[in-house]
Amino acid sequence: MTSRLVINRPDDMHLHLRDGAEMQDVIGFTTKRFGRAIIMPNLKLPVTTTIAAMAYRDRILKSLYTEGGFRPLMTLYLTDSTSATEISNARSSGHIIGVKLYPAGATTHSDSGVTDILKCTPALEKMAELGLPLLVHGEVVDPKVDVFDREQVFIDRILAPLVQRLPELRIVFEHITTQAAVEFVLDADSQVAATITAHHLLYNRNALFHGGLRPYYYCLPVLKREREREALIRAAISGNPKFFLGTDSAPHARNAKETSCGCAGIFSAPAAIELYAEVFEQAGALERLEAFASFHGADFYGLPRNKGKITLVRSAWMMPERYPYGADEIVPLRAGEKVHWALAD
Ligand code: NCD
Ligand code: ZN
After folding, report:
1. What homologous superfamily does CATH list for 4-343?
2. Closest-lying ligand to the alpha carbon of 223?
3. What local confidence, expressed as pLDDT, does residue 145 receive?
């Protein structure tokens, strides 16, 4: 059995860092493991302009403990009124790597998101022209559609027509959760790729109800049934460069999770790469982890692969029950349970 794995330093292609004291408390988990991370723009005040994205980037850089070389890759939050000029500004900033589509009301801080994708045509056409990728939260918000079917319906109603209309547009289907999404990505041309989280690879929807209601397994898109999880594993370990790592680590304080209407989001950053190693090991595909975690994402975004390495060892450790988080605390994925791989210093 492999007990030590040296891989190129990975990138997290989908991360929520939040801001202020909360960011300060979580950023170190990511910088320890990843060379770069794509930072989601869904702050309380969404990052809808290049100026706001640059200011957020400065705050992130200032909050780093060391000069270790971690690079935040910024995104812009798409709205109905994002202009083609704003897209050009984003591109010429040199630091904005993509534009995030949240259907309005789909998830945390998505109220300013897109109400009708056709309203975004000028922005999307400019993105296609400039090669700036669209990062998609792929769920419809139609209350008539079952929560567990929202990704599939999004493909049919929004994504497939979009790809037809703008075949040049580069698209990352974020945190995919279903076999339908895997198949859509496989059938599309090389400009369409997808991220997969560790939690969607590790758990199915039973985790939400195991012995009671479990808010720390609630995220969006919600965990799906076992056969969908199996389809995700097959995609992740396939070696196909269209699939790459994006944790969607989404921190929320205890008081926002342990309440009558808890927020969506799973905080996996404290064991992000270790948890993916578990998945790949269980699937007998540890030798494929490096490409999924360190090569495919960088290649899709046209970035050089990271130069450094990280070492993972097969040595179990206990995830703490909680960590400090601003004025509150935060409960990580696997709290009080074993994580089977560890990062060697
Ligand atoms: C994310 C968050 O909390 O910002 N939550 C989540 O469940 N993934 C938003 C998102 O990516 O949907
Ligand atoms: Zn997310």
Report:
1. Metal-dependent hydrolases (3.20.20.140)
2. 1
3. 98
Question: Which tens digits make up the pLDDT trace of 216-253?
Answer: 999 999 999 999 999 999 999 999 999 999 999 999 99
Say how far apart CA 32 and CA 23 lie, in whole Å: 14
Domain coordinates in residue numbering, the chain: 4-343
Residue 185 host element (H or E): helix 179-187
Q: Which residues 6+ apart lie within 8 Å of 99 measured at CB? A: 75, 76, 77, 78, 82, 87, 90, 123, 127, 132, 133, 134, 135
Distances (CA, A) of 326 to 19, 21, 23, 178, 320: 10, 5, 8, 34, 17
Pocket lining: 178 vs ligand 1, CB cutoff 6 Å: no
pTM, to two decimals? 0.98
Of the listed 248, 299, 328, 345, which one is catalytic? Answer: 248
pLDDT for res 138: 98
